[in-house]
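Q: What would this chain look like folded?
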Amino acid sequence: MNHKIFIVGLLVVVFSTACMAYRPAVIGGIRNGTALGLVIEGDRSDPAIRFGIEASTSNSPLVFVGGKWFLSDVNSRYPMYMSAGLVGYLGSRSEVGPYISLIFDRFLNSIPLFLEIGIDVVNSSRIQVQMGYYF
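A: My prediction, written as C-alpha cells:
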C-alpha cells in the first residue's frame, strides 16, 4: 500500500510543475464501477498531454496518462477529440493497459462540460462513459 501512495505522490509532484499551463477538470461516470476524479490536460497544444487520478467503487483506484488529439468539429459547434494512453488500475492486483476514447467538448451546449466515451483494455475490455467539467 505504501508503494502505491508513493507512486501516486510522485506522479503528482512530477506533473505539477507544468500545471499552470494545463486545464484541470472534475470527471465522473462509469469506469469499472462508478468513478470520480481529477483530470489535468494541456490547453492549447495538439497533441495535448492528459493525465488524471480517479477513485472507483470497484475497489481499484486508477491513474491514467495519455494524449489528446483534435479530430473534427461535430455539427460545426462541438469539438471532437481522440484520447489514447495508458491506464493503471491500482488495487490488490495492479493492472496496466491501454485506453482509447472520444471526447466531445461543449457537451449539452455548455462550454465547460465534456463527454468522454471509450474503452480501457486492462486484462479484459472495460467500457468508460464519463462526463466532466473544466474549471
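The mean pLDDT is 84.
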